[in-house]
Amino acid sequence: MKIFTLPDLGEGLPDAVVREWHVSEGSSIAAHESLVTVETAKALVEVPAPWGGRVEKLFAEVDETVNVGDPLVGFTGTDEGEAEAQPGPGDSEAVPEPVQAAAGEGARGDSGTVVGSLERGEEVLEAEPQQAQGPRRLATPSVRALARRLGVDLQRLSKDGARVTAAQVCDAAGSQPQAPAETAVKPAAATAGESATAMSPARRAMGLSMSRARDQVAQITLCDDADISNWWGSAPALLRLIRALQAACIAEPNLNALYRDDQLIPQETVNIGLAVDSPRGLFVPVLRDVAARSDDALLQQVADFKHQARETGIAQSDLQGGSILLSNFGAIAGRYATPLVLPPTVAIVGAGRVCQGVVVVDRWPAMRPLLPLSISADHRAVTGGELARFLQAMLQALSG
Predict the structure, then answer these.
(1) What's the N-to-C CA distance of the chain in angstroms?
(2) Contact 12, 169 (CB under 8 A)
(3) Residue span of the structural domain in which 114 resides
(4) What band does 38 get if pLDDT is binned at 50, 70 and 90?
(5) What is the DSSP letter of 293?
(6) CATH number of the domain that residue 336 is part of
(7) Mean pLDDT highest for which of 160-174, 286-300, 305-319?
(8) Of 178, 279, 305, 376, which has the fewest CB atoms closer than 10 Å, so is most exposed?
(9) Is there a cis peptide before residue 187, judged by omega within 30 degrees of 0?
């Protein structure tokens, strides 16, 4: 029986949750047909079959968590001409187009950390077995970054060239000598009598994204209030926010951009990553090319994303490609915030709860509905003047 193990899906997480099998034991499948849908890092990912053949055994049940590298499917009668060993980190048979999380880590440059449909190199398969590739890639890019930040030696953790997980790095960091104040806190948390709950893939991915934001971004935030009396109560607030953000991106295109390798890369279209709250964690699906879409189409897409976040999970492709982020936290509570910029994007807009405030109209005070805005930017890529002009453009668009 030929064993296919769960590949690294490029999210920097050590496992995935099986959500739906597309085959059953005893059925036959062709190479590259959809094998199973798993959830990892806030996304649903379809994993195709690496070979054609008969499915002899499924090693996991629906809703079961499977670690990267653990057996997933056993095949018999696989297609002739396929390699006898399962594709490893250095091979190129493992599954679809390379992907990145909404938070956006540059996995594309490291073919050992993504599931990708790459060209198969026969000379590589003949020259050395899978094990020879291990020492060169002991962990995914995010795990390597985590190890560098925590001062953990990956060579020491890896046994026989096995892939090191984020959990192993955190455990190793926790076992290193710490200050007395830190060591005193740890036993207290362990003996408090509270039961620990396993973090969902979405929440763990959120934690990794927030760590990157903390470590990589030089953040600045500006706040102001928009007088929305001209349309308040007659138009959807979220739609007005989307259109105002679109207008501000045209006025200051350097905020509708990505920052990679010390280079600012303005984007041609406005693709808004919309923060969606759900019991499973934070999702950031992308509204693509908002300028080319009608108001009704945008509102329907938002409704679909909210339903998917609550019920089914959001497809991997819908979590990629954001050029600027929007968080409408005021729909729940709060007026101002310091929204965190998630690299490689350089800006995020936070909209607070609408409230009544006093403004000056024709030299007289008047009560008007005000929409608080909090806009953060990465000061490595964006100047304070650009951020202020972007905020000014949003205020003007919302007040019109």
Answers:
(1) 67
(2) no
(3) 2-131
(4) confident
(5) S
(6) 3.30.559.10
(7) 286-300
(8) 279
(9) no
